[in-house]
Amino acid sequence: NPSFKIAIIPGDGIGKEVIPEGLRVLDAAAKRFDIRLEYKHIAWASCDYYAQTGKMMPDDWKQQLQGCDAIYFGAVGWPATVPDHVSLWGSLLKFRREFDQYVNLRPVRLFEGVPCPLANRKPGDIDFYVVRENTEGEYTAIGGIMYEGTERELVLQQSAFSRRGTDRILKYAFELAQSRTRRRLTVATKSNGIAISMPWWDSRADNMAKSYPDVAVDKQHIDILAARFVLQPDRFDVVVASNLFGDILSDLGPACTGTMGLAPSANLNPERIFPSLFEPVHGSAPDIYGKNIANPIAMIWSGALMLDFLGQRAAHDAILDAIKQVLADGPRTPDLGGNARTADIGIAIAAAV
Amino acid sequence: NPSFKIAIIPGDGIGKEVIPEGLRVLDAAAKRFDIRLEYKHIAWASCDYYAQTGKMMPDDWKQQLQGCDAIYFGAVGWPATVPDHVSLWGSLLKFRREFDQYVNLRPVRLFEGVPCPLANRKPGDIDFYVVRENTEGEYTAIGGIMYEGTERELVLQQSAFSRRGTDRILKYAFELAQSRTRRRLTVATKSNGIAISMPWWDSRADNMAKSYPDVAVDKQHIDILAARFVLQPDRFDVVVASNLFGDILSDLGPACTGTMGLAPSANLNPERIFPSLFEPVHGSAPDIYGKNIANPIAMIWSGALMLDFLGQRAAHDAILDAIKQVLADGPRTPDLGGNARTADIGIAIAAAV
Ligand SMILES: CC(C)[C@H](C(=O)O)[C@@H](O)C(=O)O
Ligand SMILES: CC(C)[C@H](C(=O)O)[C@@H](O)C(=O)O
C-alpha cells in the first residue's frame, strides 16, 4: 500500500480550526483508497510559538521536516501580536524558498452553490489553473536607498530571474497544459513596459514552446490579462506567470469565481527532493477565530491537491466530488449563507468520500 | 473668453475615425460655453509617418508642440508594419516622459445602457478614479543579462522610485480624494513581498497622509486589491498606484464596469509646464478599422477630461451628461449591440451637449 509521512502545521487562528476537518477528510479518503498516512503534528510556525520563544520556528526546523513527504499547512499570522512580515517571512516564505517549492499551483473553478460575482457564468464555465513562480523574480530584498531621508531620495529595487528558475516553471506549466483537454497555455508578460526582464521572459517562453508543439500558447500583457479574467474567464486553461504576476492572478482568479474563501494552493517541489506544502489561500482570519464558523473547504481541497501530488489521483477526485456535492446540497457555513459549523462541513464531506 | 491651443494627433487605425467625432463634440461644447479652441492638426506620431520617414516623430516634435495647452490623441500602433514597442516607445511613452506627464488618471464608472460583467451592480454603484504614476517605478530599461545565452543566465531588472516622483503622485491623489464626497484613498502596495521599494512607498504614503487628516487612507496589497475590484468595486473612491500596479488596475477597473472600449485616460503635467495628453484607453484596433463602426465615446470622454483639466468644469459635465444620455437611449455602435456608425454617436452626443 502507498504510505506517506505528512507534517501537520495548524499555525494560527482559523488554521487551528480547519486542520482537524482536513484531517478528517484525509482519513476518510485514506481508508477508502487504502493509503497509509502517518502524521507528524507540529506546534511551531505559529505566533503562539513566537510569543514563547521569540522566533517562528526552531533552529532545526529543516531537519525536523526533512523526512516528510508533504506539509499540510493551516494559516500563519496574528498581526495583533506579531507583524505579518515577521510571521510570514519567518515561516511560509521560508518553506517556499528553502524547500525550493518553486511551483505555486492554484486551481480556479466555478462550483454549483457558490455565488459568482460575475454575471451569466454557470458552473463548469470556469476551470483553469494559475501556475506561479514561487522563489525568485520580483520578490527580492535586493536594492537600496540613496540620499536616504533627503529630498533627493532614490530607491532602487532589483528583480532577479534566472534561466534555471524561469525554464523550470515554464516547463511545469507546459506539461500541465499538455495533460489537459484544451491544451492551452497563457503566458503573462509585460514586455511592452518592463524592458529588460520581460522581453527575456517572453523569449524563454518562445523557446520552451518549441518542445511542446501540441500546446497552443498565447502571451498576454498583465494589464489586459487581468481584464480578461473578468471578461472571458472561460477562455483560460493554464496560465503561467512570474512571482508577482502570479500572486495577483491567483487572487484575482478565485475572486472571479467567488471562491477566495474556498481556494486551495499547492507549493510544489516537483522533484520531491524537499517536502511540498499545501495550504488554503485564506489566512488566519482573526475576526472569526474562536467561533467555529470557518469554512474548512479550502483546507480540505488542499488535502486533495496533496494526495494528487503524491500520485493518488483517485483519492483526489473523490474528495473533489464530495466537495462539489456538499457545496451544491449543503450544509453551508455562514460565508455561503448557511448556519453550519466548521465540523459539520468536515463530517459531511468525509461521509460523501 | 477662455482660449486654448490643442494639438490634434489622430495616429493610426480607428484613432483616425474617432478623432473627428471627438472634435465635433468639443466644438459643440466650445460653442455652448463660449470657449475658444484652436486646433493644430498633426500627421506624425503615426505608423504611416514611420513608413515614409523611418521614425515616429520629426526631430523637432517638442518644439512643434511646446506652445500647445494639450494634446488630443487618438491611438498609435499598426503592428502589421511597425512593432508595438517601436511605435509606442517612439510616441506615446515619449510624450509621457519628456513632457513629464506624471499623472495617469482614469475614471471607472458604471453607466446605464452598458452591460456590466459583474452580477448585481447598478449604474451609480461604481464611481472611482485610478491615479497611476506615469514616469518611473517599474517601467525601466535598466538592468542586464549575465552569462547571456548560457545555462547560468541571470537577468536583473531595476525599478526606480524617487521621493520627488512618489510624493507628487501621492499629493495629486490625496488632493483628488479631498475634493470628492467620500474622501477615501486606497494606496496600492506589495510591501509584504517586494521588500525594498514597497515598504518605502508605504512610508511615503503614511507621511503624506499627515497633511490630509480629512482623507481616510487604506493601504492594500495589489493581490487582494485586484480581487476587491471584482468583489467590492463600490467601496473605492480614489486609488493611487505605482506605474505597473496602476497599469493593471486601470485596465481591470474598466473591465469590471464593461467600459474597456469606452474608457478615457488623461496623462497630466499638473503644473502645465508641458502640454498634457488625453487619449482613449482602447488602441488603434486594426481589426475594425475602415468599417466606421468604432465607438467614439472613449475619445469624446477624453475630450471632456481635457476641458476639465483646462478649468472648464461645466463643459466637462455637459459632455459627460450627454454621453450618459446616449449610452442609455442610443444610438449604439455594434460593440454595445446596436448598428449605428461612428459618426452617428458623435452627432447624437454633440446634439445633446
Ligand atoms: C502600451 C503600454 C506600454 C501602455 C502601458 O503599459 O503604459 C498601455 O498599457 C497603457 O496603459 O497606456
Ligand atoms: C503573504 C504574502 C507574502 C503572500 C505572497 O505574496 O506570496 C500571499 O499573498 C500569497 O499569495 O501566498
Question: Descriptors for this entry?
Answer:
12 helices; NAD binding (chains A, B); 2 domains; homodimer; two-stranded antiparallel ribbon; Isopropylmalate Dehydrogenase; alpha/beta; globular; 10-stranded mixed beta sheet; oxidoreductase (chains A, B)
Describe this structure in words.
2 copies of one chain form a homodimer. Chain A is of the alpha/beta class. Chain A folds into 2 domains: 187 residues, Isopropylmalate Dehydrogenase; 155 residues, Isopropylmalate Dehydrogenase. In chain A, the strands form 2 sheets. The first copy, chain A, has a 10-stranded mixed β-sheet with strand order 2-1-3-12-11-4-5-10-8-9, with helices on both faces. Chain A has a two-stranded antiparallel ribbon with strand order 6-7. The two termini of chain A are 19 Å apart. In chain A, 54% of the residues are buried. The site of one 3-isopropylmalic acid has 3 residues of chain B, from loops.
Quick overview:
Chain A has 353 residues and is α/β, with parallel strands linked by helices. Helices cover 39% and strands 21% of the residues of chain A.
